[in-house]
Design goal:
The complex is a heterodimer of chains A (165) and B (748). Chain A contains 2 helices and 7 strands. With 165 residues, chain A is mainly beta. Chain A has a domain at 38-134: OB fold (Dihydrolipoamide Acetyltransferase, E2P) (Beta Barrel), CATH 2.40.50.140. Chain B has 748 residues and is mainly beta. Chain B has 2 helices and 58 strands. The relative contact order of chain B is 0.08. Classes of the chains: A mainly beta (165), B mainly beta (748).
Chain lengths: 165, 748
């Protein structure tokens, strides 16, 4: 059986875009990389207090999983600090994936982490041209690229933490 | 300036030119207006011809100029460039003619229908005309040449019931066009395994093909004799075709069955939950109802239509459920938003020693999921839930961020919940302990309907963070209720279950768990993506916790498998809620805050209150502290679920496996049965096998081939198997980075 489907038709999350815009970011290099597994849990720390902003150019799009790295798509982005391995995850829409090409200018807001001695930028938002795509919640949880429910009978507006509070 | 002869000639030419232009302008301003050219169909419209043959009547139009017949006008007849169409004898798509003295232009070339049946238009345009005439022609199918079985060609049918899929034979001509109005005779054997057609009362039925060339029979009923046979469809002059049917015993006894599935739907890749109940009578599904929710669709409640629904054996030790939904309660329509055009196909493996239960998986292109199937206890299903229920829910919040909730709901009145003895914890978007110890205000639960469906209306005290939550539940038995969130203000997408505490309600203490070990499995996500965990946690009488866990998010972060963990303390509330903060391994790579909710009967719900992940799941009391590889020795039903090596391709599997506790080998009695990866189901079973060895008491380390998706099932996968009891019932978790896989193995 072969992999036959790579994308999911998930629309952009307008509410989460507003959330992303409301969160301050600091330039790359202004804060030290966080130390993985410093807090409770099983996963890497998403150090929301020390987010960075990376402005750069996509050098390559990596879609094959390298052992020891976070699963999902990675972007190798050339910026002022050299090449940064940015993990953008598994939940991008087909449209967004197609827009991520070598040579594309991109701005990434996220937090640095280290796994097996290698640094990764866990991307929270991507800005590609005029489009802003949310990849993770403010707490670092991967979120699909959504525009919200289409048929919900009872709704409430998107909230700034992406959760109940 | 000296005027030369050449200059004089140029000036003269300019003068003459300007004079001519002036004269022309003067003439045009006084000429008669252009005539109005009209084109109308004279004859040849609305004809039909068999594909590949000429139409009988030439196409004619009448051209008029200011209402009078216009002779000598050029008319072009043009056929479509795409099929269905036809062609002129020499001109292909066009034929150009000139009107006669009566203003009539007629095609001189024969027009021959193309090879595709259907209607189309030919236009006739006249020089100078502002509009065209249009002919409508029809190519009709040729003589029938081919009979094909296009629906229900190979099916298992439970004896004395109808197959879920109608038998459909399609008739086409030599060009592949459907042929309408052809009689097709379906004939079942007269003896042995066979069946009859309700409309005729015997073994023969002769429907006529419809506009699509389909001859359909949907009233076939298998007889009581088990075995395989062919229903033969035949039509004069055509090669007959066979429908291979197998009458098999009903895979389950009569009764009401509750089903529950949780996974990823293909519509938008979001989480979905579907749970419901249906009635099996005489081996047939005769009615039912279900509730469906995904991230984009608030709860949808539909009835199950007995027409098009069935439960059958599948010949590979698995069984299949086909549920045709109604649109709400309107069974003249299906709910096209669910399943494949409203039809859900679910495959499963029954527990070898308890065929009233099984593991199931959605087995169609609409979703990839795993879940459970249980015979419903009619007495329990008729009673309004009462006393305490430990529960666990998992899914996503309103913003699609991971969310797990667990706790205890104490139904301390008749359908009413005062809030006393009720408590819950939530990990919403890696919220850590922020939502630890939430409570309920006055809430309620409804009486069950005829399918054991109840509605919990929960009003958390912290109404700002947790506005009213509605949970639909289907009562399985006196112990278990399957849950799915309904359309509510909270607007999350949650599914799970609740377990009755009964007489244990409110009586829990440390002694309830001292000396006990629970095998637990959880899934959810961390910052890297999907996260799966499994382990065994032991609670000592001295108040400390120890055990082993495995966790996997495809990064290979786990330092050792299985990874020993400890915690200095745990507490047990009277509600049955267990809290253990800072459960950690030696290097603090795993360092999590554990919450468990006990029912006092060997079941537990588990979650973590961490700031770097959100996972939740189910736990079972381990019945012995000295379980070994020798205890893993039976035939089991197994289901697994997870994501492939890229972390985004959901898969599920379900089938039977056989462990040999003497040789430490695992295989499949036949071949491991059903897979769904990225919403595509397998057409053939896969070779399955492996070996295992005791790692630590109660934990087996195994290498299994036949479950790895990215390698087309060829790579061996490293898994740890956590034994629950001496029957070898267990949970398994993949520990390598090939893919993420979590599963359950049960005998009864």
């Amino acid at each position: 059986m072969r992999r036959s489907r790579f994308s999911k038709p998930i629309p952009l999350a307008a509410g989460l875009v507003a959330l992303m815009l409301a969160v301050a970011a600091v330039p790359l290099g202004a804060q030290p990389a966080s130390v993985a597994h410093a807090a409770s849990g099983f996963g890497p720390v998403y150090d929301a207090a020390h987010e960075i902003t990376l402005d750069g150019t996509i050098q390559s799009v990596v879609t094959q999983h390298a052992k020891g790295s976070p699963a999902g798509m990675h972007l190798l982005v050339a910026g002022p600090q050299g090449i940064v391995d940015a993990h953008v995850g598994s939940f991008l829409s087909k449209v967004t994936k197609e827009s991520l090409r070598q040579g594309t200018s991109i701005k990434i807001v996220g937090a640095m982490t280290t796994m097996h001695g290698k640094d990764y930028l866990l991307a929270r938002t991507l800005t590609i041209g005029e489009r802003i795509v949310t990849v993770r919640s403010a707490h670092g949880a991967p979120v699909p690229e959504h525009s919200g429910r289409a048929h919900s009978i009872v709704r409430k507006p998107a909230q700034t933490t992406g959760g109940a509070r | 300036m000296k005027m030369t002869t050449q200059t004089i000639l140029k000036a003269l030419a300019l003068f003459l030119g300007l004079s001519m232009v002036a004269a022309l302008v003067g003439c045009s301003s006084t000429a008669a207006p252009s005539p109005t050219i009209g084109v109308t169909v004279a004859s040849g419209n609305n004809q039909a011809a068999t594909v590949g043959t000429a139409f009988g009547t030439a196409l004619s139009v009448t051209v008029t100029s200011n209402g009078s017949p216009a002779s000598g006008v050029t008319v072009t007849f043009t056929a479509p460039s795409t099929e269905p169409n036809g062609s002129f004898a020499t001109g292909g798509a066009t034929d150009t003619e000139t009107t006669n003295s009566s203003g009539v232009a007629t095609t001189s070339q024969a027009f021959t229908a193309g090879t595709m049946s259907g209607s189309y238009s030919i236009t006739a345009s006249a020089t100078g005309g502002s509009s065209n005439a249009t002919f409508t022609l029809m190519n009709t199918a040729g003589a029938p040449t081919t009979l094909t079985a296009t629906g229900g060609a190979s099916q298992y049918v439970t004896v004395s019931t109808s197959p879920a899929g109608a038998l459909v034979a399609n008739v086409t001509d030599g060009d592949g066009n459907p042929v309408q109005g052809v009689s097709v005779t379906f004939t079942a054997p007269t003896t042995g395994a066979s069946g009859t057609f309700t409309s005729t009362g015997n073994n023969v039925e002769t429907p006529t093909t419809d506009v699509n060339g389909n001859a359909t029979v949907s009233d076939f009923v298998a007889n009581a004799t088990q075995g395989g046979y062919n229903v033969v469809a035949s039509s004069t002059g055509l090669t007959p075709v066979d429908f291979a049917l197998t009458n098999s015993a009903a895979p389950v006894a009569d009764g009401n069955y509750v089903f529950y599935l949780n996974g990823t739907d293909s519509f938008d890749g979001s989480i979905y939950i579907v749970t419901g109940a249906f009635t099996v009578t005489g081996g047939a599904i005769v009615n039912g109802e279900q509730d469906f929710e995904d991230f984009n669709e608030a709860l949808v409640q539909d009835s199950i239509n007995p027409v098009g629904s069935a439960i059958t054996a599948t010949g590979d030790n698995n069984f299949q459920i086909i549920l045709t939904t109604c649109l709400g309660s309107d069974c003249t329509q299906t709910d096209g938003g669910l399943g494949v055009s409203g039809v859900e196909t679910i495959n499963g493996a029954l527990f070898p020693l308890n065929t009233s239960k099984g593991y199931i998986s959605e087995f169609d292109s609409s979703a990839t999921s795993s879940g459970e199937f249980d015979l419903q206890d009619p007495v329990a299903a008729a009673a309004t839930p009462s006393m305490g229920y430990a529960f666990g829910l998992g899914g996503v919040d309103i913003n699609d961020a991971p969310l797990v909730i667990g706790g205890v709901i104490n139904v301390d009145g008749s359908g009413s919940i005062s809030g006393t003895g009720s408590i819950f914890d939530a990990n919403d978007n890696f919220s850590g302990t922020t939502f630890q110890g939430e409570t309920l205000a006055t809430s309620m639960v409804s009486p069950p309907d005829s399918f054991g469906r109840v509605l919990f209306t929960l009003n958390p005290t912290d109404a700002l963070d947790f506005p009213q939550i509605l949970l639909v539940g289907y009562i399985v038995d006196s112990s278990t209720i399957r849950l799915v969130e309904s359309a509510d203000i909270y607007s999350a997408t949650l599914g799970g279950a609740a377990s009755s505490q009964g007489a244990n309600t409110g009586t829990f203490s440390a002694t309830s768990i001292n000396g006990a070990s629970y095998v637990a499995s959880m899934f959810g996500s961390d910052a890297n993506g999907t996260l799966q965990t499994a382990g065994v946690l032991s609670f000592s009488s001295s108040g400390t916790l120890s055990g082993y866990v495995d966790f996997n998010d495809l990064t290979g972060a786990e330092p050792v498998t299985p990874d020993p963990v400890t915690a200095p303390a745990f507490t047990v509330d009277p509600t049955g809620r267990v809290t253990a903060a800072g459960v950690t391994d030696a290097g603090a790579v795993a360092n999590f805050n554990l919450q468990m909710y006990l029912d006092g009967n060997g079941h537990a719900y588990v979650l973590t209150l961490d700031s770097t992940d959100a996972v939740g799941g189910f736990g079972s009391l381990q019945t012995s502290s000295s379980l070994t590889d020798a205890d893993f020795k039976h035939v089991y039903a197994m289901d697994t679920g997870g994501v492939d090596g890229m972390g985004d391709g959901p898969f599920s599997t379900v089938g039977q496996v056989k462990a040999n506790g003497a040789s430490d080998t695992i295989s499949s009695p036949a071949s491991y049965a059903d897979f769904n990866w990225l919403f595509e189901t397998n057409g053939a079973d896969e070779t399955f096998g492996g070996t295992y060895a005791l790692s630590t008491p109660g934990i087996l380390s195994a290498s299994i081939t036949g479950l790895d998706f990215d390698s087309s099932f060829t790579n061996p996968d490293a898994v740890d198997i956590y034994l629950i009891d001496t029957d070898g019932d267990s949970v398994l978790i993949e520990t390598d980075t090939n893919q993420l896989m979590l599963g359950e193995i049960s005998k009864q």
